[in-house]
Structures are given as C-alpha cells and as structure tokens.
Amino acid sequence: MYRLKLTLCLFLILSALVPIQAQTWELYDSDYQLKSRLAYESILLLSETVKIGKTDSSLHLLSSEFKPSVNLEGDDLYQFLEPWILVRNEKGIGAFHEYGQKVLDLEYDEIQTYFNLLLARKGNEYWAYERGKGKTTYLGEYEKATITHNGQLIAKQGENYSLPLSPNSDQSYFLLSENEGDYLLAKAASGYGLINIEGKTVLEPVIDTLIHTRGNFFFGHDEEQYLLIEGNPIKANVRYNSFHKITYEDGLMLEYIHGKLRRVMEEDGILLDAVGMTQVNRIENDVYQVRFRDDKLGLLGKKGWLVKPTDSLENIYNGQEGLFPAQKNGAYGFVDGEGNWKIPPTFQEVTPFSEAKAAFKAGLLWGLMNDQGSILSAPQWDEIKPFRQGLALAGKDKKWYLLDTSGKVIANEGYEQISRTEQGYFLFGNNQKIGLANTLGDIMLSVDYDFLQREKSDLIIVGQNQKIGIVTESGDVKLPLDYQEILVDLPNRQILAKSNYRPVIVIEPETKGKQKRKRSER
C-alpha cells in the first residue's frame, strides 16, 4: 500500500509540470562562463548604461546586473534618443529620463526630444518639459510645433510663427526657418533678420532678402547693397558688403564689377580676386574650375590654387597625392600643382590616385597604373575601386576580386560580393552565404554563414539556419549555433544569448486530511 501511494504521488507531481512560454536569456562573462539566466521576452542594449527588458506583462529599465529597476509602464519601447526613453501603450506615448525618472505620462500622440527639452502633442495642443526647470508647461494650441536641431522651439499657427519659450514669446513672424547653423532666419513685416539659440534677435529684421549659405553665414541684399553676414551670439557681423552685383547659385558666389566677373567669394569675403576670368564652375565642395580669357584653366581650392592656371588643359578635376586628373584633346592624364603634365594625356578615362595607384579605362574595361604612369594591370576589369591599406576591389563578369599593389589578384576565386568593414576586414559573399577575411585578404572564416558580425578578434557572431553563435577568427566555437539572438555588452564585458530554454514550474499536489507528522514527533 505504501509503494502504491508513493507511485501515485510521483505521478501527480510529474503530471503537474507547467512549461512557461517566456524566452530565457543566458548571461555570460568575457570568458564565456555562464553567470545567470534571465527570463525576458526581449532585451535591448540602448547605450552603455541603458538596458531595457520586456516580458509578456511589463517593460522595465534594467540594472547593470539585468535586474528590473524601474517599471516603464508601457507595452513597448517607442524610441530612445539619449537621454530620453519614450514608451507607449494603448493610452499613448510617455517619457522617462535614462536615470529612471518619469517626466511625461503615457498619454500623448507625439513627443519630440532634445537634450534638455521635450515637446509633447495631444491633438493640436502642445506641452513642453524643460529639464532645467523640472516642470511641464502648457503651450497652447498650434497648427504645428517643432524642436530645431539646436534646441529652439518653433510654433506655427495659420500664417504666423512664434518662439513660445523665448523671451519674446508674443512676437510673431511671417517665417522662422532653421538651418545647419545656430541662428534662425526670421522674416517680419520690416524684412529679414537673425535670432540666436536663446531666442534673442542678433540681427534686426530689416534686410530686404537674406538666405543661409553654410554654417553660421548668410548672403543678403538690402536696397543697393550686397551683404555677407556671420551670426554672432550677441550681434551679427557684416563680414563683407559691396554695391557691385554678387550672385549666389548652387553654393557658388561670384562678384561682378561693371558687368565683368572679377571675384570668387567665400562665406565671409573674397576667395579669389583676378582680372580676366570668364567662367567659374564648382565641381565639388570648395573646389572650382576657373577659366580665363587667354584660355588658361586652373583649379581653385579653399586655400588657393590647387593647380595653377595653364593653357594646356581642357578640363581639370580634384585629385589626390599631388596629382590631378586633367584632359587635353579629349584624352586624360595627370598634372601636378604647377599644371605640368606628369602622366601624358593618353587615356580614355582615369580615376584619382589612391596609395599611388589609379585606374584607367580603355574601351569598356579598366586597368591599373602607378604614379609614374607604368601599367600594372592591363584593362580587364569592369570596375576598380580605390586602394586602401594595400588592397583594392576589382569587379569582372559579376564577380569581385582583391588586387594587391602590383595589380595581381590575391585569390583566383571570385565572389558575388565583397565589402570592407570599418576595421579593414573583408566580408565575402556567394549564394547568399558570407565569410570573413583579414586585412591582408586571407580567409579566416569560410563562406558558409547566413549572417556574420565581427565585434573583435575572439568574438564574431555568426548565423546558420536561423540559429546564431559565437566563433573566433580561427574558427574556434565559443558559443554553439543554438541561439535565436546574441547581444554584446562590451563596456561591461558581458554577452547575452537568447535560447529556446523554457523554465518549468513544479506544482505540488494538494494533500487532503491531516498532514504527516514531522520525523521528530514520531
């Protein structure tokens, strides 16, 4: 009878094992030793200190040990813009500071963020939370309100604009426009002006026309005068003014005296003052082709002539390593800064030099030359990309190869894709599989993986058949390919791996009647 009761009790216990459907994360140290298991549906590493864990019923800010520290109240993370954590649920969006302080309840349709400012909208009503004051202010109803990239708050109602948090919050404008600089372009009935970050006027709105050029510089025209203006926190400065015509188009400013082109301008003054100019072309930022009446052509940079004007050039382009691609009689070669031909114009097309190597085109194919003009590789490639750390990518027949500095192919096998990482490593791809090569082009991991991400030499996340793991550059397995997701917490030297492990709860069967006596009472 006793054995029968024991068997029945074990059956009841085993039949009451209940699997939990939540996922489990395994937490490893830098030596891949298991430290603990964490029951979260998902974990997000948002910064070195901000970690968020989600379960079926909650969203928490986590401690450095990945334990729940602050209930974020939402169902999902909406956005993280340091230092603000935006969360949402069925009621709306709310905001927490990364330290865990709740600053806006979960009730808004939209929240915009800046480092010390939040702008919340519900319908057409707006509120602002200012971190320095530690309070939320109701702003009112607007057609639209926005925070600029430097923290100014612009509001629009109908045809009028205003700055609700500025000292002149009641002042309205026809236009308030931000730009890459620190000063708003403002238009009032009296004209255009400038407003600083604090919302104070640093240029009274009296200029007839004013446009932003670059940085904190502006180009204006007032009555008969052309102006180059620089923003200033206290009072804007007129850096250059002229009664001669100045044109501004596509980043190119030119001044004409008595109808003739005379000066190439920069944001705050004269870049080049030369008689006899007939044409200036901006070929890239701060680089200009300048042609003269005597048919000389030069290349002008921010600090002066990159290539002095010479009469032997039809076209000239920006170059590298003291050599500039140039054209004569329809053919290309290279000139130096004095305009002298260093490599004669005998090529159909060329690229700028990189690491003393340049590509040249013949027919439909590209070859490779050195900085003396000697041919290193005959035209056989569809494309040759610039050299970097002694290697270049070359493509042919929809395959990619690595070339060394002599123009030779490192490995005869071509790949459908080759890409260079920021660290100089190479990812190789064939048939939707990926492998890894070092900075010399030597294969370290064969092209067998669906996914590959190199964190450091002994930590490469790889994936196969929808499972991921960790290997080293030598192929040693640190974590087997058994996981759904892997997160690397490098600052804290920890690794999180999401597994299919499901915790099990054991429910003891209920006992009826009297409890058994303790052994000491027998």
UniProtKB/TrEMBL annotation:
The keyword Signal belongs to this UniProt entry's keyword annotation: yes
Signal peptide bounds: 1-24
UniProt entry keywords in alphabetical sequence: Signal
The keyword NAD is annotated on this UniProt entry: no
Domain of life from the UniProt record: Bacteria
One Pfam family from the record: WG_beta_rep
Coiled coil ranges: none
Name under which the protein is recorded: WG containing repeat-containing protein
Organism: Algoriphagus faecimaris
